[in-house]
Amino acid sequence: MTGSPPAARTPGLTALPPRTVEFRGTRGGQAALTWGQQGIWRSTQWLDDGDPYFNLPWTLPVTGAADLDAVLRAVGRLVERHETLRTAYVREGARPGTGTQAGAGEGTEAGAGAGTVQRVRREGRLTVGVYEAAAKPMTAAKALAAELAATGFDYAAELPVRCAVVCLRGRPRALALALSHLALDGWSLNMVAAEWPRLVAGEDLPVPEWQPLDQAAFERSDPPPGAQALRHWRSGLAAAPRSMFDFPEREPEEPRFVRYGMDSPAAAVAAEALAARHGVTTSSVLTVASAALLAAVTGHSTAALQLIVSNRHHLRTGAMAGPAAQDGLCVIDLGAGDPGSVDPGRGDPVAGTFAEALGPGHRRTMATYRNGHYDPSLVLAARDAEAWNRGADIDLDAFFNDVRQGGRWSGLPDVDPGDAAALAALRGRTRTFFVGAYSKVKAKIFFATGPAPSTCEFFVLVDTAFLPGRVAERMLGGLEELLVRAVSADVQLDRVAEVAGLDPVRRPAGWTRIGPDWVNLPETEALLRRVCAPGPAAVVVEPGDDGPPRLTGYLVARPGLDTPDAVHAAVMRAAAGRTGVLAPRHYVLCPAPPACPSGWPDCPRLMEGGGRVPSSAMTALGR
User: Fold this and answer.
1) What is the enclosing helix (H) or strand (E) of 350?
2) In this structure, are residues 589 and 556 in contact, taking their beta carbons and an 8 Å threshold?
3) Which of 234, 296, 525, 563 could form a disulfide with 496 if both were Cys (CB 3.0 to 4.6 A apart)?
4) How many angstroms separate the CA atoms of 71 and 73, rounded?
């Protein structure tokens, strides 16, 4: 297993003979994927082969009088120190020399990492490119790093790192890197950046005591970790909308996914002021603001976001290079109800304003970050169970990622947020820009900060099959407007769309809300009729049992569809992947149809029940 950077085409660089760095670590080995690796692996398998979406370009300066040999030794020590940089990801049973031949379920959420192992190579060689820059070596190195990262990695056969040294007048000045996200995450990049000058200087740094092989063993210990996180997920799944995007799809743009960015020092100053006033973090302010914008656009009073959780709370993982992040579920109540009312499930007052939502939203956000380390297979099983109980697939493709170091800004302008004129002047420095378009991304919307310390660097990516690309750009301006306005005035949650300049999604006639979910009643009834064909069927909205209205499905019993659980199983199979349908909460099986379509509730009944739990959830009538 070796690593070889492709020939560079970056202008202003002259290729010199490449060099080979030999490395020999303290150990090699094989283990199952860590939970953090599984999350990245699952996403890479969702992409086309060779897609570089999860590649990380990275540039490190070379300061002082270090010569090329010293830099190459530092590269070798870096690879030796961190096992993740000499790890292959291999599907067991793959054909020799390939990373193909997936097992059952591989590449799907249900088979996240199943049959795939991490193999740490103890020794090997890395080919390092060497280039002479005409001028500005760091600028040239950044362009070279992007070029190195433009090609996907062969995870089974290639080292997850490519690198090249950029020189100026023969003296090394920068290291250009392309790294697989399977090898390093943002936290790890900062670790490498801190180690790099010490390695170049020749320091003999101790080998880290905790590596992904150790993490994999810990995650499979007895008892396994993550029980509390699993309870957090189950609670969140029960409260979340089945999808934030339960409305009709639209004709997507080409490419389908677009991303816009914003630099706004005013938004950062406003977020700091709100955080201080309400005793929360700026990360929570940005999370609640993102949730409020998403809920306002999609017509929900509860928003579900998956937060990217770094999982670096423990000293061991804090010193480990390798992906440790997992998705955490954050469900935030944004109903503009009576200020004095209380959500019985959580005990928090129902928020009427954005400011009132910050405290409860902060508690949800912190709970999510505390409960982000879990066995993905158990969470997927919990999602499947909730989908079966809810009556529709659970779609959680809405994300928020705060990548700032320590979740804060360190160099904001010294502006009094209470000075309206000064804050308005600061807004004059706001810049929005188009980042890029992509053909395939596993998200319908993705909010993210950037690492800039002196401004609110913020990004929004949208799936244009659900939201127009211009909505991403408008959300950026809407985020700034929401935060700045909330500093000096109460912003009612039911006016967030208006304040932010957003147009809420309009659902056609026939859509109604059932609890936290929107459902297309005619489409749901048509699906039940197809399941029951050739027999007749109907779906009726009826009062729930001490809760929201429920959907009741009426049908004529026949062989194969003679119990509620059999009917529910058939409906769930037919509803897979549909955004507009919701399986009935209750099924009534009748011996014959009514004389007129509205007469189903008065029909004689053979059996009825929810169909979620076989037998015990049913009531037999007349048998």
Assistant:
1) none
2) yes
3) 296
4) 5
Q: Which amino acid is at 287?
A: T
Assign residue 52 a region: left if phi > 0, alpha if psi is -120 to 50, beta otherwise?
Answer: alpha
| pLDDT tens-digit readout, 399-457 | 999 999 888 999 999 999 999 899 999 999 999 999 999 998 999 999 999 999 999 99
The CB-side HSE value for 500 (13 A sphere, CA atoms) comes to 32
For residue 621, pLDDT over 60 is answered with no
Going by C-alpha positions, the residue among 185, 404, 395, 390 that lies closest to residue 305 is 395
In order of their start, the domains of the chain are: 13-92+112-218 (3.30.559.10), 254-313+323-500 (3.30.559.30), 513-609 (3.30.300.30)
Tokens representing residue 427 in the block = 């807004």
The residues, ordered by sequence, that sit 6+ positions from 210 with a Cβ below 8 Å of its Cβ are: 316, 317, 319, 320
| Burial class, 219, CB count within 10 angstroms (exposed 0-12 / middle 13-18 / buried 19+) | buried
**Cβ-contact 386, 432 below 8 angstroms:** no
> Rounded mean pLDDT of 365-370?
97
The predicted model scores a pTM of 0.89
